[in-house]
Amino acid sequence: MTTQTLLNALLALVKDLSRDLPERERYRRLLEAMRALLPCDAAALLRLDGEWLVPLAVDGLSADTLGRRFKVSDHPRFAAILSRPGPTRFASDSDLPDPYDGLVEGLHQQLEVHDCMGCPLFVDERPWGLITLDALDPEQFQPAELDALQAFASLAAATVTVAARIEHLALRAEDEHQRAEIYRQASGQQHKELIGQSPVHKRLLEEIRLVGSSDLTVLITGETGVGKELVAQAIHQASARADQPMISLNCAALPDTLVESELFGHVRGAFTGAVGERRGKFELANGGTLFLDEVGELSLTVQAKLLRVLQSGQLQRLGSDQEHRVDVRLIAATNRDLAEEVRAGRYRADVYHRLSVYPLLVPALRERGRDVLLLSGYFLEQNRSRMGLNSLRLSPEAQAALLAYDWPGNVRELEHLIGRSSLKALGQHRQRPKILSLEAHDLDLPAPGSTPQAPAVSPAPTLPEAGGDLRQALDLYQRQLIEASLARHGQNWASAARELGLDRANLSRLARRLGLR
Fold it and tell me: Which residue spans within 313-416 are E strands per DSSP?
């Protein structure tokens, strides 16, 4: 490597510092310049968020890498790079597992990365993240190139500083302080992160930013499994109430009497079992946000009492006539078409209009294109850590199968599929492999272009034969009716109760007596 080569690479970056570039493009150019300076098979830029490293840009690694979140304590090479102020080069025979083993793009066989070096990045004298270079040739990097990497790292730190400051100015100009808080919270709490780069996902994030800065009531709609609760959490974190509690209640999980008590609280003696006074979710969320999931399952009786709180901000605990005033921002979610429910007389129009001040539709996974690979990477890394593997990856055929599938169960289905497939694939090996690749057949998905099979229809209940004990025969028939209804409604007990003409609490008690739950 000549001095001119180093100078050209650094000049390209200096030129970019004065240009108005999107953050992703700026980071992509950073890696492009680094690979021109230090040729390698793969490079990555990762930001340090607490105990996690979040990939911001990759070059030469599989697409799902951007969706992974690497826990520093699980990856000794990352920990070693962060522990030193300068560049680190690992010996080609190092026994430390490489986080990118099996992730180098274009490699179909199980080859591990043999030469690896990295350097921490410091912003305001604090660790910001790191850059890594990996090569299959064990003699790719020479000792002198460590100095070049150190020089490059200094300019890379300036690049990320400029990117951060430009982003900060843009946020201030657009009053987007709350969105920055979303990202901070998301990267610090793994279960709250919204991952994706598709246009529809970016539009969703923009709407979250927009409505988050207000105090409007939001109705989140979308298919089952799209992540409506994560969206609600993001809206709360984008609001001025972010430092106040967000309280959640699944309205479909409890019978009407308990839903009312959970929402509004109760006093001693309000009902059997009410041995003391208790505050409800509204009071617990005072000053913060209340998230009502499956709000379409509320009975008309509870809807009427909910309306009073929405209108006046006042509530009465169950069994009490004393008024309590609350200041709560309400976010609701449902996978039902509430407008249709209103037309059918199953939902109050006034409650619906109070809830849907700002309707927000979460896109289905099939509408998000290659986001499925980023989400897969996130779930793969979770399972890799949980299963104690060095590397867990998708073959090109598996990636194609994921992209071709329609995902009726959305992100939740993808999460369960990755977990199930990883476990099944591991079970096929007598010895624990260093790199576990998920093939298309491990995913057990329909082939692209194939006609999906029609779902199996539950057989209609059959009448018991004459004779025998009447109660046993009746129990058998009721059990068959309930099982058939649950099968038709995807095991949704609230929907089954409506079909059978029963109160949810009564159906739950009957099912318990019949041994169904």
Answer: 314-316, 323-325, 329-334, 358-361, 391-394
